[in-house]
Amino acid sequence: MKRFTPIERFAHRTITILMFILIATAAALYIPDISVLVGNRGIVKTIHSVSGFLLPIPLIIAIAFPVFRMNMRELNRFYPHDFAWLKRQDSTSIKPEIINPDPVYGKYNAGQKLNSAFSFGSILIMFATGMVMFFSSLFTDDIRTGATFVHDWLTLAIVVALAGHIYHAMNDAQARMGMRSGEVTPSWAQAHHPQWVWAQTQSKGPRKPDDMDKISSE
Amino acid sequence: MEARGSPVGRRVVLGMVGLGALGVVFGRQLNSVVSNTVAATVPGLGSIIPAAGGFRIYTVTSGYPEMSKADYRLTVGGAVSTPLNLTFADLESLPQTSMTKDFQCVTGWRVDNVPWSGVLMSDLLAVAGAPATATALTIASFDGAYTESLTMEQAIRPDVLIATSMYGAPVTREHGGPVRLLVAPMYGYKSLKWLSNINVVDSVIPGYWEQRGYDIDAWVGQSNGRSDEPVT
Asked: What domains are there in chain B, each with its CATH number?
């Protein structure tokens, strides 16, 4: 089954690479034991800044594609079955047609939705506070210190969230294959995203961005 | 609303942005409180917790220079009557001074009450016979890149030290050992690490960071556009 289009995989891949560079250089700038090993503060700082400037670009490119915006709308919306998932950690025991009244949605579980919202918010905040630190002469001391404070603490939260994200991926070869090739097996889809499989059968063939626009126009 | 669900994702993002903005505005007040609380609650994270009272280690070259006490030499030259080439033991035989000072970095972190000891710059310059008419010092590191400057008036202050000891122990390699400079009333970049050479010259020559936009007279709280509390 087709799960991810090339543009979705492009966005995921490029943001992954940039995030790894950012975290590795952050560690070298920040954790004394690693700073001692790496040195070269000027170069490391430049790599970190350039990667930070580049980070929003894959996102901006992807948002230009309707299929990506459709993902964003779906990730945004929480249904009763999402709240059930968060409470029970298992919505697979509930019949999908009962808990998913809308046959267009169902691709992601609530954890994936929360992770994507956290990631999106993190990129916005890290970019904004990073800009304050980069163009520090334009800002007052208080704002500079505040931006550093937010940038530092959010880094810790991001590392924790990413560790969880990678842990889940490591335990699921099919999920990784879905992001690498775009394809997943029907049995995996049925086991992990029954609402998605059900929604696909209801909407007769692959979903189109138009379906989503109809539904989400308020 | 049932059919379209609730826009939880958007609320999460907006909530984060709101919290982030609050953090930027009030971060200065929250900084040390939050950091020290967490560091006290979860011991062992001191070096990872942001601004939890620890030094951050900066070096401008590849890796860190290493020098044993046995190999260490400090040269004092330029316009002096007695050029010096001192070993570590020579430094230890000069009058020793101790002081406890806050250490403030221009990037915002601060470490309170750091005990240092070593030889006052003014004592060293007296031994070398720096003339009363001298105006400035250039100071260099054995890392081959890091340089600094001081006016003579700044250099002979009683809180400018050639430090051989920090926290009651030898200055470690990452903190600039075996011998570093401490210019206590100024931002940390003036306190040159891995000190190897002091020259008495007739004008201030901007050092490594000063060539990169930082102020030459780096008084804590009165330079680099910052308003930190003066060090005590």
From this structure: 1-54 (no CATH), 73-212 (3.90.420.10)
Model-level ipTM above the cut of 0.90 = no
Per the model's pLDDT, the better-predicted residue between A211 and B157 turns out to be B157
| A58-91 per-position pLDDT tens digit | 999 999 999 999 889 889 988 877 887 787 655 5
Q: What is the average pLDDT across A40-67?
A: 93
The b/e string for B7-35 (b: 16+ C-beta within 10 A; e otherwise) is bbbbebbeebeeebeebbeebbebbbebb
Phi, psi (rounded to 5 degrees) for B161? -130, 140
Tokens 């029970």 map to which residue?
A: A88
Which of B16, B28, B173 comes nearest A146 by C-beta?
B28
Query: Which residue shows structure tokens 């000027």?
Result: A42
- Chain A hits for B58, CB-CB cut-off 8 Å, are 35, 41
Place of tokens 């007739």: B202
Q: How far apart are CA A193 and CA A81, in angstroms?
A: 12
Q: Residue B162 is inside which H or E element, if any?
A: strand B160-166
Let me know how many helices (H) and strands (E) chain A has, helices first.
Answer: 13, 0
Q: Which amino acid is at A192?
A: H
List the end-to-end C-alpha distance of chain B, in Å, as a whole number. Answer: 60
Contacts of A17 (CB under 8 A, 6+ apart): none
Closest by CA position to A207, among listed A67, A96, A81: A67
Contact yes or no for A149 and B28 at CB 8 A: yes
Q: Of the candidates B1, B111, B128, which has an alpha carbon nearest to the alpha carbon of residue A77?
A: B1
Amino acid at A8: E
Distance from the A33 Cα atom to the nearest Cα atom in chain B, whole angstroms: 8
Structure confidence at residue A218 (pLDDT): 33
Q: pLDDT, tens digit, for every residue of B92-128?
A: 999 999 999 999 988 877 888 899 999 999 999 999 9
ω into residue B178 within 30 of 0, thus cis? yes
Closest chain A residue to B2, measured at CA: A79
pLDDT per residue as tens digits for the range B45-101: 555 565 555 677 777 776 678 889 999 999 999 999 999 999 999 999 999 999 999
| pTM above threshold 0.80 | no
The dihedrals phi and psi of B166, each to the nearest 5 degrees, come to -140, 130
Q: CB–CB of B150/B183 below 8 Å? A: yes
Cβ distance of B57 and A101 shorter than 8 Å: no
Task: Say if A125 is an interface residue toward chain B (CB within 8 Å).
Answer: yes
Token code pair at residue B199: 């020259």
Q: Find out whether B120 and B157 touch, Cβ atoms under 8 Å.
A: no
CA atoms within 13 A on the CB side of B101: 25
